[in-house]
Amino acid sequence: LKYSEEQAKRKQLYNQIQETKGNIRVFCRCRPLSREESSTGCATVVDFDAAKDGDLGVLTGGSNKRTFKFDRVYTPKDGQVDVFADASPLVVSVLDGYNVCIFAYGQTGTGKTFTMEGPEHNRGVNYRTLEQLFSVARERSDTFTYNLSVSVLEVYNEQIRDLLATSPASKKLEIKQTSEGSHHVPGIVEAKVDNINDVWSVLQAGSNARAVGSNNVNEHSSRSHCILCIMVKTKNLMNGECMKSKLWLVDLAGSERLAKTDAQGERLKEAQNINKSLSALGDVIYALATKSSHIPYRNSKLTHLLQDSLGGDSKTLMFVQISPSEHDLSETLSSLNFATRVRGVELGHARKQI
Ligand code: ADP
């Protein structure tokens, strides 16, 4: 009874959200000024006066201020617990059979990895999600059995790398479509996880593998998309029904535009690939938010890979991460514009005017 009540409540909440904005939500999170920024007297360009209503103010110079609207706005004082409290109903819905995608988007250094991974003593969405899934699965164990497994992937220069593979793939990893129409990558490791300790060692193995073959780990991770996929197989013990669902947690490559003079050779190729996949992601989410008849999944590896969990009755959450510093103003505005477009708000306005 407890479960069905809880499920009914969740459904009601989703329906309310869906009525107004479909299944796409955008949360904006601003990091604190760094110690160095504070010590050099760096000015802050963000204003959180109406953050509770989802409004973020940005001082764009002189006395000009632009206001951006999101589903949530987190100030630098909001912690991992506050952020996860809002994401939690969404992640739990994977146990009800929904496919879910969560992204962290933004300029390098704005807290994407902090939000998704988090430091060991203050973990982020990835770890809290798995902890929550195990806990809810335990509560429902009279009615359901859940089998959880995880894959850890990286997309770099439009190529997929399996971070849990013990030996390098002999062939390029490719996305294939099954006869039922779902997408998968044959040959990738799907590590079964039974409890949170299993998860910890898998995540650790994933981040160790990320470092291999790159001279500078931070630089490499800012130019690749890091993806944790949680696959759930559910069996309803009452009626024997089985279900499969997936939850993707994605720490995206840095969205900063490269200075023209920097862009040569490998860097130029990387920058073009990042640009391509981030715009493809933006285009897909925008097409979904505006209920377009054509969703351009095939324009990048990332959107192709996540296709089953983007659209339909899947749920999407994007964290747009920003810096409060005046020095980052132009990148901040560019991220906020991207996130605003993604919500499909612009079209909403255009329609109203017509
Ligand atoms: P990104 O993944 O976007 O490149 P990071 O997650 O590495 O950025 O964050 C950059 C720095 O800012 C790190 O030192 C991180 O600990 C710090 N940081 C980011 N967000 C927060 C936050 N909300 N609270 C405290 N520190 C943060």
UniProtKB/TrEMBL annotation:
Chain sites annotated for binding ATP: 106-113
Domain Kinesin motor intervals: 23-345
Family: Belongs to the TRAFAC class myosin-kinesin ATPase superfamily. Kinesin family. KIN-14 subfamily.
Protein name: Kinesin motor domain-containing protein
Naturally occurring in which organism (per UniProt): Linum trigynum
Classification of source organism: Eukaryota, Viridiplantae, Streptophyta, Embryophyta, Tracheophyta
Included stretch of the parent chain: 395 to 748 of 1110
